[in-house]
Amino acid sequence: MSASSDAGSVQPELLVPPVPTPTPRVNGPGRASQFLAWIGVVPFFTFALLFLILPTGFLMVGAFQDPQGHFTLGNFRDLLQPTVLDAYWISFKVSAASAFGGALIGSLLAWAAVQGKLPGWIRPTLMTFSGVASNFAGVPLAFAFICTLGRVGLVTVLLKKYLGFNLYSTGFSVLSFSGLTLTYLYFQIPLMVLIVTPALDGLKREWREACDCLGGTAFQYWRHVALPVLWPSVLGATLLLFANSFGAVATAYALTGSSLNIVTILLYAQIRGDVMHNQNLGYALALGMVLVTGLSNGGYIWLRSRAERGRR
Question: Tell me, what CATH number does 238's domain have?
Fold first, then answer.
């Protein structure tokens, strides 16, 4: 028989499907490893219970009680006092100003580090500084700004000595609304950089190349492609900055004392003060702050999830 006829013939045994080789079964983690995994998260749940859940529940109970422990709604009626409403309004303005200022400047800095054609060492340096500065607050930050922008601070003295410009003649004071807002910006801007940088990294290069191939300009790319993708992240980060500054107490108290009537200082006076001591009213003030910051954080979580879906 020729070679061609041998090649064209079909061997019967080739029609029999091969017997599949059983794959070895990979056993899941045993009970011991699962137990160890749960042991690893016990500190987190303990911390959340002791410093978040239980204090919040204690505030909620105390806000509906009088000093004798009886149920009352008088604490919430006291929240409508002009002093309390003014404190909430000033806190809202300081938080909004520092949040919008931090979001704008932080977004521009992050864009320059990620999308700008800057030297390679700029981005790691900026990220390292942002990681440190976003956690620099409280008494050290207040002391630093007093030494820098106080009446005899370094910058104030240098401006007056070499430029003949008296900063305090313009009405500025580090103990005022503008001074507290400027102080908050020190940690708000780095926090915005840390939050927005991953969102800017999520902008795919193919999107810009497709826009260029279709004849689009840089303005059209940012207007129709980049900003619709980025705005949930930017807006969510702005809400997070608002909540971050609305709940800040150590920096404001160390910087302004009682000269600026914001809700955190008023709360401290109600809880620990000797003259304005009303502990249950302080609980109601704290519960109102929890609601404001909770709504802000909830909006941030929702917008972040929306941004992640948009990038996918």
Answer: 1.10.3720.10
List the one residue out of 150, 171, 176, 167 whose CA is nearest residue 94. 176
Range of the domain at 91: 75-311
Digit-coded pLDDT (tens) for 64-103:
998 888 999 999 999 999 999 999 999 999 999 999 999 9
This prediction's pTM: 0.82
Tell whether 41 is covered by a domain: no
Q: Pick left, alpha or beta for residue 21 (phi over 0 → left; psi -120 to 50 → alpha; otherwise beta).
A: beta
